[in-house]
């Protein structure tokens, strides 16, 4: 009795299951992928009488896009290289003799922003004119859009007006420096995109004005000398260097407003000219540069042979930066002859030579850079 009852209950349960229309579950139910990623949805029949037929549909019976494929048993739908058009709902419809069951999956294709600006890349504006820079941006989620100006490495945000589809910045040109590089940047959590417009100001050129940091320079022989020149004006002037009445020293290096002379010598002294040129004219600025040099001393004559009672005259001559002072001494510490006279110009005279005046004499020439020595040998015969 009990057994029959149990069998009946079981059979009716089985019958209800077998007589059911299909029930499906979707895995996953939602997916968000980046553009060009690949994603699959699986439609699983959890109950219902076999045979069950599976079918995938888009809303409004749109056909499946060409990059959407259904696997051989119909349960797996794969979207390869997802694009924005693949976004939306995918319904899996399961059909058996008892009826239909359906499951739904939703795909989101994330879109980093893309911007387009008008005018594109470049626009010319006259002084006194106005131009509107328009930025269109797409992307999902909707990006935030900003116009800014690149100004000496900084970004200056511009006031702009926003409509549904674009953001517009007005650029009023009252002076050449109102031109420059303007950038529209769109940003959402999936990425950033930007586009540049160059605003070129027509007319309004200003003559250059060149200035040097130092108008007078003193260097010591062998040093490296650097001169700096700056110029205002529009368009930005080009700076060239030259030397008055002489070519630039061969070892010079000029870069922009900087002139560098390495290992300078006395011959590099002189006047250097910075020339700033643009379409409106040119401007010159001058640097007077002196190279200080060590004295280089010689004597005339460099040896003296005389008789006792003769007179002697020896001149010490030095090249180098002025002023130069001269000092005569005797080598070995002997005293100068009582009849010796020394002038500021380095001339040593002895009116009546004695035998004891024989020996070596030293002239030391000194300037503010340093000193130099030279010798003369005096031989007095009896
Ligand atoms: C400076 O440049 C201008 C224009 O190029 C030229 O006429 C002038 O002679 C230059 N001056 C010097 C000193 O080179």
What would your notes on this structure say?
Its main location: membrane. This protein is mainly β. It folds into four domains: 92 residues, Immunoglobulins (Immunoglobulin-like, Sandwich), CATH 2.60.40; 84 residues, Sandwich (Immunoglobulin-like), CATH 2.60.40; 87 residues, Immunoglobulin-like; 86 residues, Immunoglobulins (Immunoglobulin-like, Sandwich). The chain contains one helix and 32 strands. The strands form seven sheets. Strands 2, 4, 7, 8, 10, 13 and 14 form a seven-stranded mixed sheet that branches. The chain has a five-stranded mixed sheet with strand order 9-16-15-11-12, with no helix packed on it. Strands 1-3-6-5 form a four-stranded antiparallel sheet, with no helix packed on it. The radius of gyration is 48 Å and the shape is elongated. The protein starts with a helix and ends with a strand. The structure holds 2-acetamido-2-deoxy-beta-D-glucopyranose (NAG). The site of 2-acetamido-2-deoxy-beta-D-glucopyranose (NAG) has 6 residues, from strand 23 and strand 24.
Q: What is the second-level CATH architecture of the largest domain?
A: Sandwich
Number of helices: 1
**Rg, please?**
48 Å
Largest sheet: 7 strands, mixed
Quaternary structure of the protein: single chain
> What's the average pLDDT?
91
Q: What share of the residues lie within helices? A: under 10%
User: What is the CATH topology classification name of the largest domain?
Assistant: Immunoglobulin-like
Give the total of beta strands: 32
What is bound: which ligands? 2-acetamido-2-deoxy-beta-D-glucopyranose
Strand content: over 45%
Number of domain units: 4
Shape: elongated
CATH class of the largest domain: Mainly Beta
User: In whole angstroms, how far apart are the ends?
Assistant: 168 Å
């Amino acid at each position: 009795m009990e057994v029959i009852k149990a069998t009946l209950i079981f059979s009716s349960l089985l019958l209800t299951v077998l007589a059911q229309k299909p029930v499906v579950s979707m895995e996953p139910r939602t997916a968000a992928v980046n553009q060009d990623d690949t994603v699959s949805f699986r439609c699983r029949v959890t109950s219902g009488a076999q045979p069950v037929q599976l079918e995938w549909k888009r809303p409004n019976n749109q056909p499946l896009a060409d990059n959407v494929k259904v696997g051989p048993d119909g349960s797996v739908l794969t979207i390869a290289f997802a694009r924005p058009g693949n976004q939306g709902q995918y319904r899996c419809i399961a059909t058996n003799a008892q009826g239909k069951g359906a499951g739904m999956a939703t795909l989101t294709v994330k879109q980093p922003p893309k911007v387009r600006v008008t005018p594109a890349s470049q626009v010319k504006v006259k002084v006194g004119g106005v131009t509107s820079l328009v930025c269109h941006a797409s992307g999902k989620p909707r990006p935030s859009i900003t116009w800014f100006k690149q100004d000496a490495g900084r970004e200056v945000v511009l006031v702009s007006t926003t409509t549904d589809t674009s953001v517009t910045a007005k650029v009023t040109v009252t002076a050449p420096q109102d031109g420059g590089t303007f950038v529209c940047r769109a940003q959402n959590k999936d990425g950033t995109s930007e586009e540049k417009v160059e605003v070129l100001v027509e007319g309004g050129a200003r003559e250059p004005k060149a200035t040097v940091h130092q108008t007078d320079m003193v260097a010591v022989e062998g040093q490296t000398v650097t001169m700096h020149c700056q110029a205002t004006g529009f368009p930005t002037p080009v700076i060239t260097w030259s030397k008055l009445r002489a070519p630039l020293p061969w070892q010079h290096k000029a870069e922009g407003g900087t002139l560098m002379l390495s290992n300078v010598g006395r011959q590099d002294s002189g006047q250097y000219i910075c020339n700033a040129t643009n379409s409106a004219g040119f401007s010159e600025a001058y640097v007077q540069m002196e190279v200080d040099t060590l004295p280089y001393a010689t004597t005339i004559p460099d040896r003296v042979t005389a008789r006792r009672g003769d007179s002697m005259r020896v001149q010490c001559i030095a090249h180098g930066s002025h002023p130069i002072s001269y000092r005569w001494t005797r080598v070995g510490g002997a005293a100068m002859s009582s009849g010796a006279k020394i002038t500021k110009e380095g001339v040593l005279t002895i009116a009546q030579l004695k035998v004891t005046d024989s020996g070596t004499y030293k002239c030391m020439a000194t300037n503010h850079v340093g000193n130099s020595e030279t010798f003369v040998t005096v031989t007095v015969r009896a």
